[in-house]
Amino acid sequence: MNLTSTYMGLELRSPIVVSACPLSEDVANIVKMEDYGAGAVVLFSLFEEQIRRENALYQEVMQNTEGAFAEAADYFPGAEDYQSGTGEYLDLIRRAKEHVEMPVIASLNGTSAEGWIEYARQLEQAGADGIELNVFYIPADVSLTGVEVEQRYLDIVKLVKSTVDIPVAIKLNPYFSAMGNTAYKLAEAGADGLVFFNRFYQPDFDIENLRVISDLRYSQHDEIRLPLLWIAALHGRVNASVAATSGVQGATEVVKYLLAGADVVMTASSLYRHGIEHLEMMKRGLESWMQRLQFDSVASFRGVLSQQNIRDTTAYERANYIRIMERARLA
Amino acid sequence: MTRELNVTTIDGNEAAAYVAYRVNEVCAIYPITPSSTMAELADEWVVKGVENLWGKQPDVVEMQSEGGAAGAVHGALQAGALTTTFTASQGLMLMLPNMYKIAGELTSTVFHVAARSLAAQALSIFGDHSDVMAARTTGFALLSSASVQEAHDLALVAQAACLKARVPFLHFFDGFRTSHEVNKIALLSNEHIRSMIDDELVYAHRKRALNPDNPFIRGTAQNPDVYFQARETVNPYYAAAPGIVQDAMDQLAQLTGRHYRLFDYHGAEDAERVLVIMGSGSHTVRETVDALMTRGEKVGVLTVRLYRPFSVKDFVQALPGTVTHIAVLDRTKEVGATGEPLYQDVVTGLVEAVNSGLFSRLPRVIGGRYGLSSKEFTPGMVAGIFSELTAQQPKNHFTIGINDDVSGTSLVYDVDFPLPDQGMTQALFYGLGADGTVGANKNSIKIIGEGTDLYAQGYFVYDSKKSGAQTVSHLRFGPEPINKPYLIREADFIACHQYAFVQKIDMLAQAKPGATFLLNSHLAADQVWNDLPAPTQRAILEKGLRFFVIDAARVAQSAGMGTRINTIMQTCFFALSGVLPRDEAIGKIKQAIEKTYARKGDEAISKNFRAVDAALDYLHEVPIPAAESNAREFPLAVPDSAPDFVRNVTGVMIAGRGDDLPVSALPVDGTYPVGTTRWEKRNIADQVPLWDPALCIQCGNCSFVCPHSVIRAKFFHMDYLQQAPASFPSSHIIARGFPETRYSLQIYTEDCTGCRLCVEACPVVDPKVRGRKAINMARKLPLLEQSREHLGFFEKLPVNDRSKVEYSRVQGAQFLEPLFEFSGACAGCGETPYVRLLSQLFGDRLIVANATGCSSIYGGNLPTTPWTTNSEGKGPAWSNSLFEDNAEFGLGMRVTVDNHTALARSLLVKLRAQLGPDLVDDLSQAPQVYESEIRLQRERIATLKSRLQQMDTPDSKSLLSVADNLVRRSVWLVGGDGWAYDIGSGGLDHVMSLGRNVNILVMDTEVYSNTGGQMSKATPTAATAKFAAAGKRVGKKDLALQAISYGNVYVAQIAMGANPQQTLLALREAEAYEGPSLVLAYSHCIAHGINMHQGLTQQKLAVASGYWPLVRYNPVLRNEGKNPFVLDSTRPTIKLKDYAYNELRYRILLRSNPGEAGKLMQLAQEMVDLRWRTYEEMASQTARDFQPVA
Fold it and tell me: Residue B865 in 3-state DSSP?
């Protein structure tokens, strides 16, 4: 049975990919991911502001301690060689590349043009097979227009693509007013891959203590519907690889995304729930489904339920919505 | 002869360590100022893979004390390794026993010593020869270096000579003046070092080692029959040693062209007056001699290099035969002797030389003392001594540099004695300890010293505070080598990096006529003049200074440098000083930036470049008006309302004029009044807390965590408000049943360091304004006047009666007077809140034995000290003995208190009839648990004293002298982990085992904080520290469990930031327990590499991760049949790394060696897990599972 898949030009032995999450902070985990069948791993995100924060900490500590007192000219041996930020991450890439054969894709979350350029270059030099741009950006500025927001994404893709030679994917949010066009333009701008979708961590309120609660919630399997819609709708229409993420809990969601046209299917929450070993269960589930439906390769069924491959294209459009509403009324 | 081409700019410590590292196989070390750097460098070089002559890295072993280091050195030498150590002062004292052994066994080694004062009437970290002179009887040869270059060269001479002579060497140079002076030197090449070390002698050294294949014993016990003769066997070795040293010096001269002699004479060939001196001061004498010779004076100087063995022959040979008068200068004091050591040797040597015919006649010899504790020694003083030698009856046993108006020992001298202009640029820089001024100046020295043909010298003076400290950098640049071991008195360039300093410091007193003055000012060039105080304006006008300003803060901000102004000020210095052509200088600064930030990324480099470029754009010359425009003088150091001593002595020290104080002004026995910090309004914070009465819930958290005791609360009757200033803030007290009571919280803004811990601790959240709390930081300047007015009123409000305050809760503790206030500790210090709390809880009956370390420095470093008294004049009695003996020191106090209490009680019984049976019974038996009971006891004692004063018998007098002991005294042994885990560990353990009622507070910062963050046994696994640069691999010692194993020790582990209530409870339980108690307090520290305002958060995380479990072990519970072990914190909720990686000490390893960091962090996590399981199991056991208590 042929599970191989191509993502941004990278040959993968399986379409199941581990999405960016802290599990990949540890090389042992990355090895385990490969052992249990992952086709690739997207490393946890390198956040520019974390690096800046660390830089600021370093600067402040040094300022407060260097030459401050007659008995203590300094406090930290080796501090002059301290490299805040990327060193640890780059080392992780290097070590991961030494230990696994599957592609290792770095994830970068920048905040400034200098940051995107400098860090992307470093990721490439460290040996990353690709870069996923994690543009976690909430346009709360009321003066900002939709066009400007889209332009921001396009600029970032162009900037990074002009800096590195390895493939670059961009992780999208689902809130563009013209999702299809945005995806199309991103691909035109050079994005090698589009990742549907980034999950925004939405805050809650503690009404007793009047505090904002920020917590991490794992994705649920019913979250796949929105990305499923867009992957299916855009399959074959944009010149870029497509990765599906959100709500992948088992083989069922993997199959669905592939049927919609995804080149790879990414998961993280399921690994937190069930352990990295769960990758094998997903793979077996995929194989078992393919066997049952007599598909001998992933390529043979990818996108068969996408908009361009089904006869009733209204399933993805307005008419389908009307039909659903009518059914609901009858129920 | 080949000359070294390799020049560098380093300090004396590095110069000596550079050689020591390369010629040794083992370094056994222990940190002590000012020698610590030598050991730290050795450790760093090991990590960097630097090799010694034999292609290996020496084994650098940090020991638990200098005594331990000396023992390890002795052992390593006996096993055949070339071994060294680095130390100073008290450290050398701890090495003395082993030094006798090492010398007695004729063992080749060199100890490198940054010579420092010994603690006598007070500790001093600064330089003199008290320590090395105390070691002169050990049998070690004493070789003295007088400059950075000499510290480098003679380190090698000592090593070469010791191998040949078989006499161990103590190679020393002046602490701070040489150890910390940065100078341009010629670096010895490895080839030169190699050629000075004879391998055959190294093999011979190894051959003499203990070896089971060729066994012998060494270290026997000898009896009256042979000990004496055996002691005399070494004489030939000591007789040969001077010649061997001179040979080594000659060999060095062949290699380098730098020729030293055992006694170096410099001066007139026909000199009649000669000064004999050792150490850096000899260079001052040399240049003064040169100046005097140009006036035709017949003077000279004899610099002593090899002091032991003292070669009389070489000494008199070096003296000009024409000499008639000699003054011998000692940088030490030997009380009660016929003279100081060098003086005695010179006198004895001359007498012997004359008697034996080596010298023709006996010159007149006088001896004197100079430069104790780094006291300045200047050309004027030297000239004064030469002048004294012309007197009919020159004063013997004189002092120079002070005004001894008690014993009349001091000589007068011309302070402004002129030296010829030597074509150098002299520059002074006034900065803050934390503004990077010192670092930038060291960088400037490197740029000029290593990048040009010019010579450079830098010396840095710090004040005694750890927060808001002033630094003064003294830099000299010139075409000739610079050997001026004294501060700059006439500067060509003066820079003030902190605007506030110009308002209170007379820095232009040191300006040469026509000099340049650069001021970092928020005021523009056309505005700044009128804001300068009168003396500053006057100096600018009278001396014709050029005056420039730059708004460095603004430039830093615009360049993205935050508050970092040092590069900007450095650029201005180069632009104005003319040391180098401007463009060349700017180019070199940028090169240095590129080098420094090469590993920090392009962004860091470009930010610094922007700052350099913008600095020049914003640098403006101030047009100087024709006349002064401001009548304002410098402010008084202390107000007129201060007590006499504070005004006349403390205030003079605060004003930086302590050198002018005469001997008579100072206490004879080191006893000083308490409560002096309150008079020194340092005003170091720009932002201070501002209380919002409307939001405040009066929880007391803010004052509980305040490291500087600047947040005070009082409750009072509302009627008092009638006299209050209109703006005085107060609110109804949050307590039922007190409708007429008001509450007010006041901030001592002038004493605040702006650390923000109070804001972090405030639990209140304003629902209407995001981020606002009940206490918030605000700009100080607009608040200052009002704050003074409010405090004036607040201090007049009655002090809350501690017997009526429920201070078992944090909320109540805020009403207790802090008797430890406004210390010079770091802003946001993690230790001082515990100290302050001790003073609040037990202060009026507290005796503190304080181990040397941070707490003894912020607690007892002059000019002002924070321990103070309550409104009744009672308060903590505090003393510091040493570092290693604090447990024993405190125990001694306890034993005395018990002894005198017992004496008082027995006398009470004896005088029962005369004093009244009721009073005596109450005094002897009344409980003293609660404040109200202690208050009653104090009243009884007052009655007792008044009755005793009516009597006049030996018993009544005796009872009167000890009656105060009838109040239950609280004896606390306070110190850091360096003391408790390392150097004082044995004593601490012993004291706990004795069962006496002592309370031990260990403020655990997990490193030697005071000396710069060296590893202790409290340093955690996976963290880096000095001597653990590659990450600590061994686990932290569990001192709590060790103490618990005794059974009768009350033990608590606390972290104020995590659980203030548990902290309060533990300290009170510990104090109440009638036996030994040990409280281990987590103390965040700048050595952790955190933003200090995050200190409390880190404490919380330390507890939440299980790294620092909160526990209490109370033997009383054991006796009640209950489990004495209580675990006060909950199961870990986060991983260790989620706490640890917020701190630079852990992150450094993560960045430098992520693989190792990962492994060590995993190991550390396992340790945390295991410890937690152990504690959890203990918490679930029964009383019988623990040691029974008698």
Answer: coil
Q: Which amino acid is at B919?
A: L
DSSP states of B985-1028: HHHHHHHHHTT-S-EEEEEE-SEETTTT-EE-TTSPTT--BBTB
* Matching fold, domains B425-621 and B1005-1185: no
Task: Say what the ipTM of the complex is.
Answer: 0.91
* pLDDT, tens digit (0-9, with 9 covering 90-100), for B121-168: 999 999 999 999 999 999 999 999 999 999 999 999 999 999 999 999
Known active-site residue B632: no
- The total number of residues written for chain B in this structure: 1190
Question: What residues are paired with B428 via a beta bridge?
Answer: B474, B494
Q: Which residue has the tokens 């005791």?
A: B709
- Would residue B1074 show up in a list of annotated catalytic residues for this protein? no
Domain B1005-1185: CATH superfamily, name plus number: Thiamin diphosphate (ThDP)-binding fold, Pyr/PP domains (3.40.50.970)
Least CB–CB distance from B439: residue in A58, A67, A83: A67
CB < 8 Å to B1025, chain A: 77
* Owning domain of residue A265: 5-330
The number of beta carbons lying within 10 Å of the beta carbon of residue B1005 is 28
User: What is the mean pLDDT of the segment spanning B270-275?
Assistant: 98
For domain B7-255, the CATH superfamily is Thiamin diphosphate (ThDP)-binding fold, Pyr/PP domains (3.40.50.970)
Q: What pLDDT shows up at residue B1?
A: 38
CB B354, CB B410: distance < 8 Å: no
* Unique residue bearing structure tokens 């080694």: B109
- DSSP H helix total and E strand total for chain A: 11, 12
Would you say B32 and B87 are in contact if contact means Cβ atoms under 8 Å apart? yes
**Mutation site, A52, A55, A57, A76, interface B, largest B CB count within 10 A:** A76
Q: Is the Cβ–Cβ distance between B1014 and B1025 less than 8 Å?
A: yes
On the question of a cis peptide bond just before residue B716, with omega within 30 degrees of 0, the verdict is: no
Q: Write down the domain spans for chain B.
A: 7-255, 261-400, 425-621, 637-670, 678-816, 901-966, 1005-1185
**CB burial string B165-195: b at 16+ within 10 A, e below:** bbbbbbbbbbbbbbbbbbbbbbbbeeebbee
Tens digits of residue pLDDT in B1070-1083: 999 999 999 999 99
Confidence of residue B794 (pLDDT cuts 50, 70, 90): very high
A 11-70 residues inside an 8 A Cβ radius of B = 26, 54-61, 63-70
**What is the architecture, at CATH level 2, of domain B425-621?**
3-Layer(aba) Sandwich (3.40)
The answer for B601, left when phi > 0, alpha when psi is -120 to 50, beta otherwise, is left
Which H/E stretch holds residue B141?
A: strand B141-145
Domain B261-400 has CATH 3.40.50.920: yes
pLDDT at residue number B3: 40
| Partner-chain residue, chosen from A63, A71, A75, that has the shortest CB–CB distance to B436 | A63
**pTM to 2 decimal places:** 0.91
Question: What digits encode the pLDDT tens for the residues B448-464?
Answer: 999 899 999 999 999 88
Cβ distance A57 to B1089 less than 8 Å, yes or no, reads yes
**Number of structural domains found in chain A:** 1
CB contact under 8 A, B1144 and A61: yes
Q: Tell me which CATH homologous superfamily contains domain B637-670.
A: Pyruvate-flavodoxin oxidoreductase, EKR domain (4.10.780.10)
Catalytic residue among B13, B24, B33, B1063: B33
Question: Domain B678-816's class?
Answer: alpha beta
Q: Does A236 touch chain B (CB under 8 A)?
A: no
- A210 and B33 in contact by Cβ < 8 A? no
- Interatomic CA distance for residues B299 and B268, integer angstroms: 6
Write out the two tokens for B87.
């130390």
Query: B301, B289 in Cβ contact below 8 A?
Result: yes
Question: Please, is B1120 exposed, middle or buried when counting C-beta atoms within 10 Å of its C-beta (0-12, 13-18, 19+)?
Answer: exposed
How many CB atoms neighbour CB B232 within 10 A?
A: 8
